[in-house]
Amino acid sequence: MSVRLGDRVVLHDITFDVEAGEFIGIIGSNGAGKTTLLRTLLGLIRPSSGTVSIFGRPVRRGNRSIGYVAQRTVVDPDLPLRGSDYVSFGLDGERWGFALPSRARSQEIAKAIEAVDATDYADKPIGSLSGGEQQRLFIAQVLLQQPKILLLDEPLSNLDMRSGQEIVNLVARLARERGMTVLFVTHDMNPLTGVMSRVLYLASGHAVVGTVADVVREDVLSDLYGYHVDVVRVGDRVIVVAGDESCAHP
């Protein structure tokens, strides 16, 4: 599959399969094509060549078996909307007007909030919550549609290291409990190393897919980037460092 946006080819001949229940980390720097890939899987962008199918069928917009947590900036701190009200949009997003309150509806929302361990602050204004607390509520909203696949676009941005790791662990737990397949976009693979089954590494619109041990190597990533890169391991962390572009591969 390739994707062209205007005069630019953003994704070049990307080929990969995802098994049910896998946790795939989609790794790459800004501009590598990570968000474009997710938008293509959502049916929002058509590939310029090749095909994309999910559950054996061509992708389409509005597929409720796919949950999507979009990349977000910080919520306005003065926003008076309660966290639970925001979560409820997961039930109301395709409905005109206001939903009538009911016990079943309230219980469904409460269960989604409980699943992400956000009950204690769900009735506070969402703008007053920390980035990690907001992210939990964003995920709870998507859980209401009971997705089989969960796509997350940079959910760790604007989070500190501890909060980011808590979100990763939360998503991994939800995936296990609900049998969900996860595609998790981030520019730093380190928080995912303990939970992801494979990594899809994007650079300059090209991709390589495999286990961390198979992909995150100097020879593999140098071929992907088109110039030499160093893979440095410091304790449990992996750092990819750009080398000398004069060593570019032909």
Key terms for this structure?
250 residues; Rossmann fold; six-stranded mixed sheet; two-stranded antiparallel sheet; 7 helices; 12 strands; 30% helix
Structure explained in plain terms:
With 250 residues, the protein is α/β, with parallel strands linked by helices. The chain has one domain (3-74, 84-93, 100-216): P-loop containing nucleotide triphosphate hydrolases (Rossmann fold), CATH 3.40.50. Helix content is 30%, strand content 22%. It contains seven helices and twelve strands. It has helices at 34-41, 83-92, 103-115, 131-143, 161-178, 212-215, 218-225; strands spanning 3-5, 8-11, 23-27, 53-54, 57-58, 66-69, 149-153, 181-186, 198-203, 206-210, 229-234, 237-242. Strands 6-7-8-3-9-10 form a six-stranded mixed beta sheet, sandwiched between helices. The chain has a two-stranded antiparallel sheet with strand order 1-2. Strands 4-5 form a two-stranded antiparallel sheet. Strand 1 (3-5) and strand 2 form a beta hairpin.
Q: How many H/I helices?
A: 7
Largest sheet, spatial ordering of strands? 6-7-8-3-9-10
Q: What is the CATH topology classification name?
A: Rossmann fold
Helical content band: 25-40%
- As a whole number of angstroms, the C-alpha radius of gyration is 19 Å
Number of strands: 12
β content, as a range?
Answer: 15-25%
Report mean pLDDT, rounded to a whole number: 90
Find the structural class using helix and strand composition.
alpha/beta
- The 3D shape can be described as globular
Q: In CATH, what is the class?
A: Alpha Beta
How many independent structural domains? 1
Question: Low-confidence parts lasting 5 or more residues at pLDDT below 50?
Answer: 245-250
Q: Which homologous superfamily in CATH is the superfamily?
A: P-loop containing nucleotide triphosphate hydrolases
| Beginning-to-end CA distance, first to last residue | 23 Å
CATH architecture: 3-Layer(aba) Sandwich
The ordered H/E elements are EEEHEEEHHHEHEEEHHEE
Q: Please give the largest β-sheet.
A: 6 strands, mixed
